[in-house]
Design a protein that fits this description.
The protein contains twelve helices and 15 strands. By secondary structure, the chain is of the alpha+beta class. The termini are far apart.
């Protein structure tokens, strides 16, 4: 009998946003910078154990009814298969860039292959470990757990220790993280309908302005990322500045993203008016909840960019909105409504909705992972000294910002589609962001 795992709400969303013809892969690529030498035999053995520990890594997906276009319900099909592994020698930086681009652009078809692969690149000096994962497998926090266990497996293999994987890592249902009673779910669901009605009314009164990165639906181009890195100590100083002003670093980063877009569009001769941003938020508890899955929701910051005067005002507006939404649990309200909608749709209809040519609804997207920094990953004679993450974008957010922290360095990863915006345009945006970040007052 075929072994299966349930296909949850975010599994379905992440899979629906994967469409070769549309140019969307929804598969982040982690690039770990290695110091020392990672032995290939130990890595191969560790990947064998990893496939046993996380069986979803080699699973495929299939409809549990009907065909791929009409099915509403899907399942993960577990397979006894190896994790794809490639070892390459890279002669110079140009060859490394070509490899990086190849991996970031590779499309993973979950109906015929697993959503996880590893490439070890050896340079004249040092190595890079590329880990590519389909977002349907797990969120960033779960991936950090996986990388930690991978390092432990490598270490055991280096020492010649025999390891037996007693049980697979748990993959828990999304609703388990919320710990809601049926009554609470119903109450929040009704509140979610109100959240959507309020958003609909706001859109009727004043539609959001289209930013430069929202105007194209052509996502067939390459997935690229500009990485802006700074010492973590600088961000700690900026956090103190934000706290002294009555907010926090998260709100300050939001303000930088809004303000840098305002300045960039001013260079283009434009003045955006109403704009908004989704802020990715976890639904799982901070501790005591082990799950290799997606447990995500999002807050929405919505403001008049033509009326909120400067970065300080943007920060305080974002901070107050987020605090109010957290109190009324707006992110969970919307999550429950979206869950009901998505699970009731046929896959073909869901894809049509995701790739429709309707008006822009969301301008910007931010995923801030500073609260869960990448842990120390090391073994005998090697260690990870840095990490870069490239996350493909989906319509209509042609530029997406993810923020990560690894070994004392913070990376602002500006992910973009080349058929939506050019590299030079993204460089202009990043320059404005860096100017705010690096200014003595943090832009305030």
């Amino acid at each position: 009998m075929q072994r299966t795992l349930p296909f949850d709400f975010l599994d379905k969303v992440c899979f629906a946003a994967t469409e070769a013809a549309q140019g969307t892969s929804n598969a982040p690529t982690w690039e770990l910078v290695l110091e020392g030498h990672l032995p290939t035999p130990a890595l191969r053995e560790a990947l064998r154990l990893l496939a046993l520990r996380f069986p979803l890594l080699t699973a495929t997906v299939a409809p549990s009814e009907g065909d791929a276009a009409t099915a509403k319900r899907w399942v993960w099909l577990l397979r006894d298969a190896e994790i794809p592994f490639e070892q390459v020698d890279v002669a110079d930086d140009g060859a490394l860039t070509a490899l990086r681009h190849r991996l970031c652009d590779r499309f993973i078809d979950l109906t015929s292959e697993g959503g996880f692969e590893v490439v070890l690149a050896t340079l004249p000096q040092g190595q890079r470990l590329f880990v590519k994962q389909h977002h349907g497998l797990a969120d960033g926090r779960a991936m950090l757990t996986l990388l930690t266990e991978l390092a432990a497996f490598i270490g055991a293999a280096e020492r010649g220790e025999a390891i037996a994987v007693a049980a697979p890592y748990p993959r828990r249902a999304e609703l388990e993280a919320l710990a809601l009673s049926p009554w609470e779910q119903r109450r929040l669901f009704v509140g979610g309908i109100w959240e959507y009605l309020r958003g609909l009314w706001a859109g009727i009164r004043k539609p959001v302005s289209e930013l430069r990165q929202n105007r194209s639906l052509d996502y067939t181009g390459s997935n690229r990322t500009l990485h802006l890195t700074r010492p973590a100590a600088l961000l700690d100083a900026r956090a103190a500045t934000a706290k002294a002003a009555g907010a926090n670093l998260n709100a300050l980063i939001i303000a930088w993203l809004f303000e840098s877009n305002r300045r960039w569009h001013a260079q283009l001769g434009e003045q955006p008016q109403r704009v908004n941003m989704t802020l990715i938020a976890e639904t799982r508890p901070r501790s005591g909840f082990d799950s290799f899955a997606n447990h995500l929701s999002s807050f929405i910051i919505d403001l008049r960019l033509d009326q909120v005067g400067d970065a300080r005002a943007l920060m305080m507006t974002a901070h107050l909105q987020l605090r109010a939404q957290a109190v009324r649990r707006a992110h969970l309200r919307r999550y429950l409504v979206e869950r009901w909608m998505v699970l009731s749709l046929r896959m073909g209809d869901l894809r049509k909705m995701l790739f429709s040519a309707g008006p822009t609804v969301i301008n910007l997207n931010l995923s801030n992972m500073l609260a869960i920094p990448i842990p120390t990953i090391a073994g005998e004679g090697w260690r990870v000294t840095g990490a870069l993450i490239s996350t493909p974008t989906t319509p209509r957010t042609g530029i997406v910002l993810t923020v990560t922290r690894c070994e004392g360095v913070v990376s602002f990863n500006f992910n973009y589609k080349t058929t939506v915006v050019s590299q030079s345009e993204v460089e202009q945006l990043v320059a404005q962001f860096a100017d705010l970040l690096d200014s003595e007052s943090g832009g305030l």
